[in-house]
Amino acid sequence: MRAMVYRGPYKVAVEEKDIPSVEHPNDAIVRVTLGAICGSDLHLYHGLIPDTRVGTTFGHEFIGVVEEVGPSVQNLKVGDRVMVPFNVYCGSCYFCARGLYSNCHNVNPNATAIGGIYGYSHSCGGYDGGQSEFVRVPFADVGPSLIPDWMSDEDAVLLTDALPTGYFGAQLGDISEGDTVIVLGAGPVGLFAAASPWLMGAGRVIVVDHLDYRLAKAREFAHAETYNFAEHRDIILELKKATDYLGADVVIDAVGAEADGSFLQHVAGAKLKLQGGSPIALNWALAAVRKGGTVSVLGAYGPAPTGIKFGDAMNKGLTIRANQCPVKRQWPRLFEHLRNGYLRPSELVTHRIPLEHIAEGYHLFSGKLDGIIKPLVVPGAS
To answer: 175: Cβ–Cβ under 8 A, 6 or more apart, which residues?
Structure first.
């Protein structure tokens, strides 16, 4: 089969790999019909995630058709059209029993730190991902779900990570009616995080980024007020002015380790890897939220120590909530939001890239070129 293969930082290719086989009675093999490149895939591409091994296939956002099932699989059959959440999870451990699928204790040798994720390094279990023609899906009765007939493929693939993660960020904010919510980052997850607070009663949503075309999309898609931090000497002062010098009730960090905004922190974190990424977005979140407010963290950071202003968090009495999204837990409510027309995730799709050209897709996405917001990956397209 054809599959994207990691060859080192900033180097990916498409090569022949063996078609995966059923290794356990609970496995399924899924033929991928549509995948995506996630902003967090860029952390892998840039060499920031520990134990990302040469030869690995990335891709934790994908849908497809069931090609084969193990003898114990009860809920899927060959030919089913399925969406697969990015979490690999067992469904029966202490954490899964509480709906914390992203914290599953049985699918990753590093489970005390993180659960299993498709295509996201051996730090996350070493599972090959969906930027390929076929994927092995463990615990096939637990994670995948049938795609409803009324749902398009492009909406479905964005329900495997980007939309649920953005929505989860707003949930972690525990938003009350009339709250002011600031979202740092206008990538796909940030845009979904900005659209979601309205469904929870927010009174204002403000998005901060430095790319004008993404801020324009935030105004159009999420009906948000926007600030380009590159146009202000002190973005925190501007945000304080905009919130009566109190700060926002909730701030969502949808940026993570590769944040711009501080040359020194970006070089130390994202380039020299002296810390677990640039802490600038998270420190802005701690500064921009009001005393007693909530900071929700969706952005990914590495395991190395990072210069977070934790003393500010303590002195302001903040609540900080963070986790990888338990995707399937979000689906019932998100399905209803799609059916009712409140959310149209495919509106963020800007590029449809054939698998054979995925190296160009990573180049465009990494460089924020050609107005790119959300690139999909199409196996078999020319």
So the answer is: 181, 197, 200, 201, 202, 249, 250
